[in-house]
Amino acid sequence: MVSHSELRKLFCSADAVCFDVDSTVIREEGIDELAKFCGVEDAVSEMTRRAMGGAVPFKAALTERLALIQPSREQVQRLLAEHPPHLTPGIRELVSRLQERNVQVFLISGGFRSIVEHVASKLNIPSTNVFANRLKFYFNGEYAGFDETQPTAESGGKGKVIKFLKEKFHFKKIVMIGDGATDMEACPPADVFIGFGGNVIRQQVKDNAEWYITDFVELLRELEE
After folding, report:
1. Is 22 among the catalytic positions?
2. Which residues form the active site (predicted)?
């Protein structure tokens, strides 16, 4: 067990911070919003709940949900235009404070790149720092599946991305922040995991995270001290 003061030191001296997106950086679950927009909300949100609880392998859950939603390119674009995701209070300030300190900020999501890049642009995070799943479309814009080669399409995918970041950029200390079981599993290789319950509390994460917060102000305060 690492003491809380050591965890805080690690966070303040990290050279990279990785955030989950759905229910962490934004208030919604992107796939549920897409399902709602496409008229299959109830069936899909039940599947999301089972996947987040770790009951179903991630790729199987993703395949199953997307087969139900069948989102077209036009529907994804309309969702972003008509119902853009809402940033979680405090995230904009936290990301910009980290960037001021020359900390690299990454978004690692089991959600969709088109939605996550939209969020990244609002936070001045370059798209090269985004790791997420890519939807595929036929030439007429209809849904054609997703890119199954992305690490984020697999269970344990977030850990694979963090391992890749350490190898590529030689980061000494990486912090992972997120609300779900898939985020907690990414530590190790992440050096610190901070559970976030500001939008939704997942009991398994709350019970097992060494550091659990419900407001990004708590992390901003650590950086100010």
Report:
1. yes
2. 20, 22
Report the distance separating Cα 90 and Cα 7, nearest Å. Answer: 21
Q: At what angle do helices 58-69 and 30-37 cross, to 10 degrees?
A: 20
By DSSP bridging, strand 16-19 and strand 104-112 are parallel
DSSP letter assigned to residue 67: H
Radius of gyration over alpha carbons of the chain, in Å? 17
Q: What is the pTM of this model?
A: 0.88
Q: Residue 20 catalytic?
A: yes
The catalytic residue among 20, 32, 179, 191 is 20
pLDDT for residue 138: 94
Report the length, in residues, of the chain: 225
- 10 Å CB burial of residue 122 (0-12, 13-18, 19+) is middle
pLDDT in tens, 74-95: 999 999 999 888 999 999 999 9
Out of 22, 32, 183, 191, the active site residue is 22
